[in-house]
């Protein structure tokens, strides 16, 4: 169902294979809204948003940069089975995977980082449309579960930035099984009383929307993003009529009550930080050492079916953020420093 | 004389034999019995033909069997297996979807909640039930009935038979994706046993929403897939005519899925498919579901939730899952 990957992105192709950024790397980029050409470096500074407000599709590093306070560390993701169905259409699936890896420098469509957003410890999981249309397969499912479990272990909030045409057909039923699998992972985050936020970007459709993209505590969409269950082409073929203007776009979803907020990427971080700080306020207060704790540690959390893992005590979020900034984060020697 | 069944495209040779038998029977009716050895010879031939055809159905042929218009439907299962059935309706928010039905009853004597897709059989019924393609209200009704099951400590039986969730403007407008996600979630968080049977077509997210269960069973010739073979073919090759190829590539049969551990058990169908002997198929399905319910009955809510997590996490996972990429 990653048919969306067949859509050409206007003039933004040809990344060098070694270039880890998934954002366009040419000197000039065209804005599809105004038609103007902009200097790429300027657009990049604005987190890949054009002056007319077009939100370019971006991969993990620019997304981390746009959301984390400062440095983040990459979260190692588990290996997944490769092509168990021995699938081939015109090409072998393993060859398609190879090509996508070469193009993006990623193992699959998901990447995860651990850092702080507004001082709140957070894991951000980013799905890159550039990798086989962001399609949800076993690797992405395993990544989601790993990120959720890491969030619980690290006492961190979880944010998933979605972008996908849907399920990865080449993995057949195993891709479909990622819907219940990721849903189970979300339950672990919920049971631990940690926030799970979804940031929906262009496009988010199919099985991704029908599982983890619609199960967040808060849903935020980027302007103009295509978001839906069935793709517009499928709907048009089914009902045999033209779809209304703006159908399945972020603003429409907001109007229909499916997302809480439609936010410009440049304002996203501030609002996400606000949301996280409120949602984790009681938790932070009850866990801060030396502070009066007038309730049981679990009281601020929603009713949950299982005993909750006792999170390690942390310093107040602010001082912790300062401490974080002071030291070089590293998990696997691939840590990056922003700014 | 019994009406001949509706034949599938791969059953042509069989149809011809049956036709001949029919003609001969009409000729000999009440008159000389001279033709009857010929009839019994043909009958044996037909039986052999049927055996041969159905012993090696490919994924596409199974898809056709799974979609057969006379295949038992939700209402047939309920009529045969559920006593004291009271159908309940409505999502309490917008409407009452007819593609997913549900209610209270006793499944072979066991008090429970039953939910399932209904495709309908006659043209009128098919339209009423939207060909088994549910809108958000159907999934919200399912979730609501599962809430009730939890509240009253009742197990849940779901019968899955859908080409997929309905792709329409209204369905999108009212949050089809969210409704599916919530229904899937409700299956997984349920603290009472839930057993799911794929009776015909298990189409994509619209099927998962009712099939994220403790035990997932499939009828022998049913299929369960991420997208319909036609859909896959039109995406992969821009040619829905290559559906057969797509069906075989995707591994959608009960036998494939048992091997992949996506399902737990295959329920054998009568020779020639469930539509040739519906009562037999329904009885076998009922017995298997009842056994699964009984086996799960001993587990408490936590054990059930934990079991579902283990079950689904294990699917497709590498033996050394801790290995890092």
What does this structure look like?
The complex is a heterodimer of chains A (339) and B (325). Chain A has helices at residues 40-45, 60-67, 93-104, 138-153, 172-176, 178-191, 232-239, 250-255, 265-279, 281-287, 317-326, and strands at residues 28-30, 37-39, 73-74, 110-117, 120-127, 157-164, 196-204, 218-221, 261-262. Chain A is α/β, with parallel strands linked by helices. Chain B has helices at 12-28, 36-55, 59-66, 74-81, 123-128, 136-151, 169-173, 176-189, 204-211, 229-236, 243-250, 254-259, 278-296, 301-314; strands at 82-88, 100-107, 110-117, 156-162, 194-203, 215-219, 223-225, 265-267. In chain B, α3 (59-66) packs across α11, α4 (74-81) packs across α13 (278-296) and α6 packs parallel to α8. In chain B, strands 1, 2, 3, 4, 5, 6, 7 and 8 form an eight-stranded mixed sheet that branches. With 325 residues, chain B is of the alpha/beta class. In chain B, a hairpin with a 2-residue loop joins β2 (100-107) and β3. The interface between A and B is large, with 61 and 61 residues.
Q: What's the total helix number of chain B?
A: 14
- Largest interface in this structure: A-B, 61 and 61 residues
CATH top level of the largest domain in chain B? Alpha Beta
Major β-sheet of chain B, in short? 8 strands, mixed
Give the overall shape of chain A, derived from the CA principal axes. Answer: globular
- In order across it, which strands form the biggest sheet of chain A? 3-4-5-6-7-8-9
Question: Total strand count of chain B, please?
Answer: 8
* Number of extended strands of chain A: 9
Radius of gyration computed on alpha carbons of chain B:
21 Å
* Structural class determined from secondary elements of chain A: alpha/beta
User: The CATH topology of the largest domain in chain B is what?
Assistant: 2-enoyl-CoA Hydratase, Chain A, domain 1
Q: Identify the CATH homologous superfamily of the largest domain in chain B.
A: 2-enoyl-CoA Hydratase, Chain A, domain 1
Compute the separation of the termini of chain B in Å: 65 Å
The percentage of residues in β strands of chain B lies in 15-25%
What is the overall silhouette of chain B? globular
Task: Tell me the distance between the termini of chain A.
Answer: 37 Å
Element-level helix/strand string of chain B = HHHHEEEHHEHHEHEEHHHEHH
> Which architecture of the largest domain in chain B would the CATH scheme give at its second level?
Alpha-Beta Complex
Beta-strand fraction estimate of chain A: 5-15%
């Amino acid at each position: 169902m990653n048919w969306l990957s067949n859509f050409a992105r206007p003039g933004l192709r040809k990344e060098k294979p070694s270039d880890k950024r998934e954002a366009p790397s040419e000197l000039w980029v065209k804005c599809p809204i105004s038609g103007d050409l902009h200097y790429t470096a300027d657009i990049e500074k604005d987190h890949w948003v054009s002056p007319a407000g077009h939100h370019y599709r971006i991969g993990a590093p620019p997304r981390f940069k746009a959301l984390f306070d400062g440095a983040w560390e990459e979260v190692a993701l588990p290996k997944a089975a490769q092509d168990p169905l021995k699938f081939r259409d015109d090409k072998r699936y393993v060859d398609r995977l190879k090509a996508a890896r070469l193009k993006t420098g990623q193992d699959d469509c998901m990447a995860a980082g651990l850092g702080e957003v507004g001082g709140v410890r957070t894991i951000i999981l980013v799905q890159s449309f550039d990798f086989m249309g962001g399609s949800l397969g076993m690797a992405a499912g395993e990544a989601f579960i790993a990120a959720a479990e890491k969030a619980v272990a690290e006492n961190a909030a979880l944010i998933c930035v979605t972008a996908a045409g849907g399920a990865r057909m080449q993995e057949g039923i195993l891709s479909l099984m990622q819907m219940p699998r990721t849903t189970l992972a979300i339950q672990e985050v919920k049971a631990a009383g940690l926030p799970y936020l979804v940031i929906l970007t262009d496009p988010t459709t199919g099985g991704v929307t029908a599982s983890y993209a619609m199960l967040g505590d808060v849903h935020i969409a980027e302007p103009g993003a295509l978001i839906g269950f069935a793709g517009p082409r499928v709907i048009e073929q089914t009902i045999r009529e033209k779809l209304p203007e703006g159908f399945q776009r972020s603003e429409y979803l907001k109007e229909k009550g499916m997302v809480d907020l439609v936010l410009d990427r440049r304002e996203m971080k501030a609002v996400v930080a606000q949301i996280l700080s409120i949602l984790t306020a009681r938790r932070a207060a009850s866990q801060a050492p030396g502070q009066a704790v007038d309730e049981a540690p679990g009281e601020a959390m929603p009713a949950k079916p299982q005993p909750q893992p006792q999170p390690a005590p942390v310093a107040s979020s602010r001082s912790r953020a300062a401490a974080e900034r002071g030291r070089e984060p590293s998990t696997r020697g691939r840590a990056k420093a922003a700014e | 004389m019994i009406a001949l069944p509706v034949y599938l495209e791969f059953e042509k040779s069989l149809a011809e034999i049956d036709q001949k038998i029919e003609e001969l029977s009409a000729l000999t009716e009440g008159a000389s019995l001279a033709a009857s050895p010929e009839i019994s010879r043909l009958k044996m031939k037909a039986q052999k033909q049927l055996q041969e055809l159905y012993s090696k159905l490919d994924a596409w042929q199974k898809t056709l069997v799974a979609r057969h218009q006379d295949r038992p439907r939700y209402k047939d299962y309920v009529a045969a297996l559920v006593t004291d059935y009271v159908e309940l309706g409505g999502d309490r928010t917008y409407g009452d979807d007819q593609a997913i039905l549900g209610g209270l009853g006793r499944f072979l004597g066991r008090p429970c909640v039953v939910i399932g897709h209904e495709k309908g059989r006659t043209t009128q019924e098919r339209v009423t039930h939207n060909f088994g393609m549910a809108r958000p209200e159907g999934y919200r009704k399912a979730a609501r009935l599962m809430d009730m099951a939890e509240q009253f400590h009742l197990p849940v039986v779901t019968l899955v038979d859908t080409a997929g969730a309905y792709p329409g403007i209204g369905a999108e407008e009212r949050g089809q994706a969210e409704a599916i996600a919530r229904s899937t979630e409700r299956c997984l968080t349920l603290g009472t046993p839930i057993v799911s049977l794929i009776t015909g077509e298990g189409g994509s997210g619209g099927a998962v929403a009712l099939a994220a269960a403790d035990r997932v069973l499939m009828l022998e010739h049913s299929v369960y897939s991420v997208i319909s073979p036609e859909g896959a073919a039109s995406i992969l090759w821009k040619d829905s005519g290559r559906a057969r190829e797509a069906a075989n590539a995707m591994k959608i049969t009960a036998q494939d899925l048992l091997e992949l551990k996506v399902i737990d058990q295959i329920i054998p169908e009568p020779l020639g498919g469930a539509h040739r002997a519906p009562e037999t198929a329904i009885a076998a399905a009922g017995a298997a579901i009842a056994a699964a319910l009984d086996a799960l009955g001993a587990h408490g809510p936590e054990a059930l939730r934990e079991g579902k997590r283990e079950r689904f996490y294990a699917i497709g996972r590498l033996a050394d899952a801790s290995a890092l990429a």
